[in-house]
Amino acid sequence: ILVTGFGPFPGAPRNASSLLAEALAAAAVRSLPAYKVRAAALPTEWEAAPLRLGELIAEHDPVAAIHFGISRRAHGFVVEMRARNLAAKICDARGDYPPAPCVVTGGPEEIGTTLPVNLIVDRLRRLRLPVQLSRDAGDYLCNAILYHSLSDVRRRAERPAGLRRGFIHIPDRLLTGERRNGRPATPSKLDWEGAVAGGLAILAACAGAAGQIAHR
Ligand code: PCA
Fold it and tell me: Global pTM?
């Protein structure tokens, strides 16, 4: 199982998503012993992020890839239902703009996630963690990575249904004490402990590992 987060980007000097990916991989050693969980931080860069994702997929050939990113609008886990072929003219961490206004020239307008969405929502609600579904992953790097990851699944005709791929946004203020533009941010409904517990439940749901999460 591949778990990715993103590195910093303009306006977000620390990105909780890559820390969460690392924490999940570490916790999964005990909680999901039947799976190898690999964490990686993707550069928040239009050109380098999809290249790095391609390398990771080629190296690990994961049964599931769960991508995390932060969002200002998220109050809890936001499970993205689809990626759209849109790339906004917004600067990346290198100061570059996307080469085109779309993610893949000539690609489909949208591609649906292959995550077991209902199962994920169910597991998170049982843990009393905030979760929401979204049909709008934005038009920045998170949407672009989801689009690339799902395009890769579509290209592999052999086992597309079995390959779980999707994107989950988490609150940008997950790291405690975080302030935004000097002002304290609205508190998130999700704390770090909840994010790790929920993240593990998401991984387990994707792995089809019902009941394999060791409850603490
Ligand atoms: N959030 C941004 C990109 C990286 C991240 O963590 C987004 O929502 O597109």
Answer: 0.92
